Amino acid sequence: MEQKWWHDSVVYQIYPRSFNDSNGDGIGDLVGIIEKLDYLKLLGIDVIWLSPVYDSPNDDNGYDIRDYEAIMHEFGTMNDFDQLLDQAHARGIKIVMDLVVNHSSDEHAWFAESRKSKDNPYRDYYIWRAANDDGTLPNNWGSIFSGPAWELDEATNEYYLHLFSKKQPDLNWENEQLRNEVYAMITRWLDRGIDGFRMDVINLISKTPGLPDADVAPGALYGDGGQHYVNGPRIHEYLKEMNDASFGNYDVLTVGEMPGATTEDAILYTDPARDEVNMVFTFEHMDLDSGPGGKWDVLPFDLQKLKDNFTKWQVALHDKGWNSLYWNNHDQPRVVSRFGNDTMYRVESAKMLATLLHLLKGTPYIYQGEEIGMTNVAFETIEEYEDIEIRNMWQERMAQGANPEALLQAVHKKGRDNARTPIQWNAKQHGGFTTGTPWLKVNPNYREINVERALEDPNSIFYYYKKLIQLRHEHDLVVYGQYALLETANDIYAYSRTYEGETWYVYCSFAEEETTVEVAHDTTDIIIGNYATAPTNTDQEVVLRPYEAVVYRTE
Ligand code: NOJ
Predict the structure, then answer these.
(1) Residue 551 CB: number of other CB atoms within 10 A?
(2) Nearest Cα to 22, choosing from 435, 467, 482, 518?
(3) Per-residue model confidence as pLDDT tens digits over 156-182
(4) Among 75, 191, 224, 337, whose CB has the most other CB atoms within 10 angstroms?
(5) Number of domains in the chain
(6) Considering the entire predicted model, what is its pTM?
(7) Which of 14, 51, 60, 161 to mutate to test ligand 1, by most ligand atoms within 8 A of the CB atom?
(8) What does the pLDDT look like over 397-432, one tens digit per residue?
């Protein structure tokens, strides 16, 4: 496979609203990001992915875009953006933007036109339908943010489709003119000098013609329309067309956020010969702790399922496509709370999880705060949560008679605001994020967990991430080596990577007591480990301490 710059890159995701506030309005901003570029340079990352910074009424914190070519007022100006780009490039850091084109804001100029009349030239940019003859909604699909996926618009007495909130009407990709406008917009950003795109729910843009009703799961209020829009009929055609018309002409990184994409789909999306996208974000490993009732029906963590899933992806995409690797983003709970132990073994388990992920094959993504082991938050009341997904879900379930305590616990475990509490820079008020009042409360553990402390401690999670990033930069084995699962006890995840005659063995313990693993290789050459001393070896056995990670190398 031809080597690419993004093969050995590590990406750092910034959620600008929660990153660093430079002007005291309680909301992070672009100048705040510029102030922290040296911090990111020290960490050693190659690329920043910026969650949306475009003009938006913020119904879904910027994932509802009003103007694709203007900067959100709270975040600064286009001049600040150009400064950020220049300053990042001056440090050798690339910038990837979010591309949100499954839907726009209902305040976008296209939608303002579209809703005016049935014969408006922009009408067909969105998906409009009349009610059925019996007065029911055009189909039975539910919105991903609760309620039906249809909203009545009085002006023309028709409904528009919104897979997400009412303020996020879906764009109609069947319309060629719309597609061309999107490609031209992408090209203008690339000409401005950005280095690629993370493409929001991009595998939802093609819907089954006729928008048929979907199956309704037992106990569900609406049909799961996903069967008619996830990896829809024209998706590969659209991505190829987009690639040809825009980013395919530039040496940039493209990553498609793709809920419901299997390994077979991912091979099609990322096979370099097909010219679609470079890599996809799968959701399979993020869904392992969801029960039949979905995201809020939380199951206990099951390491075996994780091993099976990662192994399936590592093996399937080897030499056929390209993986992305992530534990966290702005939609997911904090990994140290989810799959580790965020109290007794916070530091050990955060480093172990980092080892596991960063030595796999693929492009790793670090989400802001992960590099200091930030944890989930447990606000006491639902009013303290800001996220539209949480709020809508709460309203719907309370109306159905759900138990508030149990539901609040599910929010503590899975809510998106776990990832969105502001970055804890130091032990000062509001963790040094703002001199004003933060838009979302800071996690109360900021005095103990913060960047300043991490930078002072040579054994911190931060410096461990830095080492892992360096290993990827220095060893082709980490980038291109072949993966194999090693059979071990239940609480251990062990795998090897082999490249040009050299093999690395990665052992990660999820146990809270000592666990002995058999090894069939030399154990003297340790590449990295998360304890200060090497584990005890007894004749082809290694005793791993709680949440220990250790990597051996043999030639
Ligand atoms: C996926 C994004 O990551 C999420 O934050 C957003 O709410 C939805 N897409 C809708 O844009």
Answers:
(1) 22
(2) 435
(3) 999 999 999 999 999 999 999 999 999
(4) 75
(5) 3
(6) 0.98
(7) 60
(8) 999 999 999 999 999 999 999 999 999 999 999 999
